[in-house]
């Protein structure tokens, strides 16, 4: 098979590619919700579990990137995650942010030819920015954010403590933290999954 034919084949989404996208999106979502579900214990735990999920989430995401060979795979992975989050009540701004970040990641991967491990780390740092998305309404509709929580059955005492805890300073610190934790998670995942990247032929 010529190089031209091989290049043309990589542009088509195969059934195996779709299965890979679905499997890793499911793994990522299970880990995300498995960790963050404990955030409902108290406001501090909410921030702590979100931070932990940033680090842990790097493993399935980076392992997925090791199997990405062409455009569209990251976008579909992210779209699945975004739709699930939307159905489960995440604010639309978080979903829009997640999809927008996937486009940036697609560009990073395309420019580096889907062959760079460190481009994978950078891609995960970009992806980690979405963790700030669920709390973005607190900057422009704080009252509406907490009233919707109560309307959806959340304990009023918990939402009151959360309102007191999530000051502007805490929110800004959290937003910066997700970027830092994205880097930490990406580097940890890169070292844990180095053999998988080498097996995939990534430089």
Inertia-based shape: elongated
Mean pLDDT: 87
Q: What is the number of helices? A: 11
SS-based class: mainly alpha
How do the strands and helices of this protein lay out in sequence?
Elements: H1 3-9, H2 15-36, H3 43-65, H4 73-87, H5 92-111, H6 117-128, H7 137-140, H8 142-151, H9 156-165, H10 168-192, H11 194-199
Helix pairs in contact: 2-3, 2-4, 3-6, 3-10, 4-5, 5-6, 6-10, 8-9
Give a structural overview:
The protein is mostly helical and 203 residues long. The chain has eleven helices and no strands. The longest helix has 25 residues, at 168-192.
In summary, what is this structure?
The protein is mainly alpha-helical. It has eleven helices and no strands. The protein starts with a helix and ends with a helix.
Feature tags:
203 residues, 11 helices, 0% strand
């Amino acid at each position: 098979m010529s190089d031209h034919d091989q290049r043309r084949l990589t542009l088509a989404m195969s059934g195996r590619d779709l299965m890979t996208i679905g499997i890793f999106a499911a793994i990522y979502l299970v880990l995300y919700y498995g960790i963050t579900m404990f955030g409902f214990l108290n406001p501090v735990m909410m921030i702590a579990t979100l931070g932990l999920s940033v680090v842990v989430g790097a493993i399935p995401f980076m392992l997925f990137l090791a199997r990405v060979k062409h455009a569209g795979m990251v976008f579909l992975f992210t779209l699945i995650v975004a739709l699930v989050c939307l159905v489960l009540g995440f604010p639309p701004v978080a979903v829009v942010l997640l999809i927008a970040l996937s486009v940036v990641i697609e560009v990073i991967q395309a420019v580096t030819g889907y062959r760079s491990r460190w481009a994978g780390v950078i891609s995960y740092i970009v992806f980690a920015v979405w963790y700030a998305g669920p709390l973005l309404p607190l900057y422009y509709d704080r009252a509406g954010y907490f009233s919707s929580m109560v309307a959806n059955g959340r304990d009023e005492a918990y939402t009151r403590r959360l309102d007191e805890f999530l000051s502007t300073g805490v929110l800004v610190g959290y937003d910066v933290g997700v970027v830092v934790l994205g880097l930490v998670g990406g580097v940890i995942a890169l070292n844990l999954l180095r053999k998988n990247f080498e097996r995939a032929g990534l430089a």
